[in-house]
Amino acid sequence: MIRGTQMNARFSDKSVLVAGGTGGLGHAVSLAFLEEGAKVAVTYREQKGFDVLKNAARANTSSLQGHKLDVTDEAAVKQLVERIFTEQQRLDVVVNTVGGYVGGVKLWELEPKAFDQMLALNLRSGYLIARAVVPAMLKQRGGAIVNIASKAAVDHAAGAAAYAAAKAAAVAMIDSLAADLKGTGVRANSILPSIIDTEVNRKAMPNVDFAQWPKPEDIARVVLFLCSDDAKLIHGAAIPVYGDT
Question: Is residue 51 situated within a structural domain?
Fold first, then answer.
């Protein structure tokens, strides 16, 4: 758990949306924003994950809202963003940590259903979220968007064609979005982690040395920096967060 410093509450009273906010990385990002004073809304698919997040939030629970929905559902995403704006009157930060991985399969052996799933989770989610939030951010003349991509976007390993393609497309999409947003006060950036040290990844690769994998809490600090005023000059970047891997 990240130990926040309310004395350095960079996001005091800021409105933040963390898509996938109960996942391995999303959990850490959500807590980090809460501990720096933000009002955080998260999306999730399983109630258990949100319950764990609420318990970890402790004194900051009152600043946390959870919304069970599928972020690849256009209508659901639009409705959620409209609800946040109605309640908070603004949305200062959006972080998309939603993603999924299918690997270890050669491209010609990969089922079309799995390919489509990779595009939906790793590309369509970011598109729908940006499409929903950008118009409102433009009206308020400010905001920060961070999309979590992957090292796979630039390092295309065997057996991961669909995942790599989706993540590479996501980076290109955010880069183009950033160009669209120049001069508006709204910033968009990507983060490219290597394999993150999460419980899911450890179980998936039990025989791998995960000691050097980047920790969710460390990546969360990078996310918060990119969303803060300290990073006001960073726009259209794809930041590698590889650790020692």
Answer: yes
The model's pLDDT over 122-140, given as tens digits with 9 standing for 90+, comes to 999 999 999 999 999 999 9
Instruction: Name the catalytic one among 44, 101, 127, 163.
Output: 163
For residue 1, is it within any domain? no
Mark whether 44 is an active-site residue. no
pLDDT < 70 stretches in the chain: 1-8, 197-198, 201-202, 204-205, 244-245
- 4 assigned to some structural domain: no
Domain encompassing residue 30: 9-241
The pTM of the full predicted model, rounded to 2 decimals, is: 0.92
List alpha helices for 141-215, DSSP H. 161-180, 199-204
Query: How many domains are contained in the chain?
Result: 1
**CA 242, CA 239: separation in Å to the nearest integer?**
9
Render the burial of 216-235: b for 16+ CB within 10 Å, e for the rest: bbebbebbbebbbeebeeeb
3-state helix, strand, coil in the chain (%, to 5): 50, 15, 35
CATH of the domain at 76: 3.40.50.720
**What local confidence, expressed as pLDDT, does residue 245 receive?**
59
Helices (H), the chain: 24-34, 47-57, 74-88, 112-119, 125-140, 161-180, 199-204, 216-227
Q: Is residue 2 part of a domain?
A: no
